[in-house]
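Service request form, structural biology core

Requester: graduate student, group of Dr. S.
Request type: structure prediction, single chain
Budget code: on file
Notes: please return the result as structure tokens.

Sequence provided:
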Amino acid sequence: MLHMLAAIFSKNHSQLFQYNFEYIELLVSGHTLKIEPIDEKLEDEGITIRSLKYYIDSKALEKCYREDSKINSPSFWVNFIPSLRRRARNLLYDMRSGEVLTLAEVIDTYFDELPEEIKNDIIALPTEAYDLIGNLQIELITTDRLPLQIATFQHALNMKLRHIHDITKAFILFLYKFLWKIEI
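Core staff response, request fulfilled:
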């Protein structure tokens, strides 16, 4: 679910096509945004294109978001951004920053550097939906940040348990010595 929310709020709705869902409904700035996957049949070309239908406050928007798989291809980004080099899976090495980036990070960082005609092909979100989610500043917790927090929590817990163990051991030793003195 977090990946779906990240795709919505990063305005990379093409990532939603990897998930099977009936619809997503969000309350954003007092408006209900509903996103529903549909299959559009193009009679002229005899093909079916996966699309996302948008509703704001139950009113269907005319424009749909059509699947654009180019944006999710590392090769696409390497072709247009010379400082990127492909790595394993969907990772890219950024020669400018020296960091390895995920595809979502590349899209966020370099989308504005694409030629205008390419951006227009990719941004196919209905204007109303784009405006509704475009002004929100949202940062989702990524799984990359969680292991550090878990490790910190585990360390603190281990320290507390060690302290309890030491106190219990000292108490038992005290009782043993005390009882030993009484019997002698």
